[in-house]
Amino acid sequence: MEINLIWQTPKGDYTTFEFEYITEILFKNFNQNKIFDNGTYETVIDNYVIIYSKDNEDRTPIPNEFINYLDKFIEKKYNFYLLHLSNEHKGHDCWYYDKANYVFRNYYFDDIKNNNVKYIPLGFKSGFLNKDKSNELLKKINFSFIGMPYKQDRMEMVNIIKNNKSFLHLTSRWNCPTALTPKEISDIYKMTKFVPCPMGNVHVDSFRITECLESGSIPVVKLYNENDYFEKIYPNHPFPKIKTWNELNILIKEYDDDNKYKELYETVISYYENFKQNLNSTIIEIIKNNKK
User: Fold this and answer.
1) Phi-psi region of 114 (alpha: psi -120 to 50; beta: other; left: phi over 0)
2) How many CA atoms does the CB half-sphere of 120 hold within 13 Å?
3) For an engineered disulfide with 92, which of 53, 56, 98, 209 has Cβ 3.0 to 4.6 Å away?
């Protein structure tokens, strides 16, 4: 099945960051025609996925230039789909979603009521794609945390795991100069039993979930306000769930037995591989069945 993928994102990180996730996971089994418009809104063709990043943390409206661009497809009666990246702050009204045949987006919000929306995981930074499907378990580290600690309750978590056979690499900002490469992080995760996954700036989801799964480790998710957000994105997932970070100490004792850990590991990794296949099949069916 053919699909046109057109990036309306600026050159650089905004385009390359999730490139592998988009092309090798979400649209893996499509015959892809890749076009990079770099936010110029010039290309208007049929059967087109518009890949764009809009968050508008300052609550400014979606630009008229973008809306006018979508209207060009409607005028020509073209089929088009939106892949809305970012939007962690839900900083603008998503009313324009109804213009598209269908919308794929990160970050689940209860109050986005459009009927043509499919929520997808945040995915992973390019470089995390796991091409080595080896099942060899080399778990030498109990917990790993790599990233910015100064968000929400992250320092509480860091202080709990720091003396528990853990690997910590703390950074000060997104794309920090001292950040490890995806390859370096992936290698650490491969040796790690559990990766605690605290919330991001304002939302429960983070890239850490999928990056550690892709690397062959097990995410630990916290029930913020006693809700399992990830059931919205990963239905019936087998990831360990905790209510407080102190429970990490209980978790590591529970899975101190290698055989018991291996059983959980195989369950989680099998779930993730099946999830990716099902997600890809679902996207194919959505595009196939939602043409105007």
Assistant:
1) beta
2) 28
3) 56
pLDDT in tens, 28-53: 999 999 999 999 999 999 999 999 99
pTM of the predicted model, to two decimals? 0.93
Q: Residue 186 and residue 153: Cα distance in Å, rounded?
A: 24
> Which conformational region is residue 226 in: left (phi greater than 0), alpha (psi within -120 to 50 degrees), or beta?
left
The Cα 280–Cα 29 span in angstroms is: 7
The span from the CA of 234 to the CA of 215, in Å, is 17
Structure-block tokens of residue 94: 């998503």
Tokens standing for residue 2:
């053919």
Query: Which residues, 6+ apart, have CB-to-CB distance to 95 below 8 Å?
Result: none
Total residues belonging to the chain: 292
How are beta strands 80-85 and 166-170 bridged, if at all? unpaired
Which DSSP category does 83 fall into?
A: E
For 254-277, write each residue's pLDDT tens digit.
999 999 999 999 999 999 999 999
Task: Pinpoint the alpha helices (H) of 7-109.
Answer: 13-16, 19-21, 64-75
Nearest of 150, 195, 205 to residue 173 by alpha carbon: 150
Quick one: average pLDDT of 153-172? Answer: 93
